[in-house]
């Protein structure tokens, strides 16, 4: 999961887009649009310092 967060942070810094951490079973990934993956659990938005803002706080 740490590698996924690092890559999400890199993408956020490089492009300035919101990045979201998602999970399906034991598979973690990131996306720019969580609505494209309705079967995945949205864990939260990844901040530029690697912190995860819980999905209940994501707008």
Short description:
The protein is about 25% helix and about 35% strand. The protein contains 1 helix and 4 strands.
Describe the structure.
With 59 residues, the chain is an alpha+beta fold. 24% of the residues lie in helices and 34% in strands. The chain is built from 1 helix and 4 strands. It has one helix spanning 2-15; strands at 19-24, 27-31, 41-46, 52-54. A 4-stranded antiparallel beta sheet has the order 2-1-3-4, covered by helices on one side. A hairpin with a 5-residue loop joins strand 3 and strand 4 (52-54). The radius of gyration is 10 Å and the shape is globular. The model has no long low-confidence stretch (mean pLDDT 92).
Number of helices: 1
List the helices and strands in order: HEEEE
Question: Percent helix among the residues?
Answer: 10-25%
Low-confidence stretches: none
Order of strands in the sheet with most strands: 2-1-3-4
Going by helix content, strand content and strand pairing, the class is: alpha+beta
**General shape:** globular
Q: Using DSSP, what is the number of strands?
A: 4
β content, as a range? 25-35%
Biggest β-sheet strands, sense, barrel: 4 strands, antiparallel
Alpha carbon gap, first and last residue: 23 Å
Spatial extent as radius of gyration: 10 Å
